[in-house]
Amino acid sequence: MDEAVVKRVPNETEAELACGLLRSAGIECGSRVTEEIDSAFDNFLEAGPHEIVVHPDDLEAARELLADAPADGDDSWDPEAAQ
Questions:
Q1: CA–CA distance, 47 with 75 (Å, rounded to integer)
Q2: Ordered structural domains, the chain, with CATH
Q3: Cystine design at 9: which of 14, 51, 59, 68 (Cβ 3.0–4.6 Å)?
């Protein structure tokens, strides 16, 4: 399968959240541990940085969708959290 990296996220949890958002929009998605190493512990566990990958034809739509998603810690989209 041809794949294109959409985004790099700090951990597996964020990768799963991003893939869930993409899948809800009909975009097939996967994640993998990134080959880039930021620290000595990155390859020790699966908890390190992950790349989110999609089919190359879906790359632009996936980037747009993820760009519109709230950033980590941004409660402005949640009316209950803003009160």
A1: 25
A2: 4-70 (3.30.70)
A3: 14
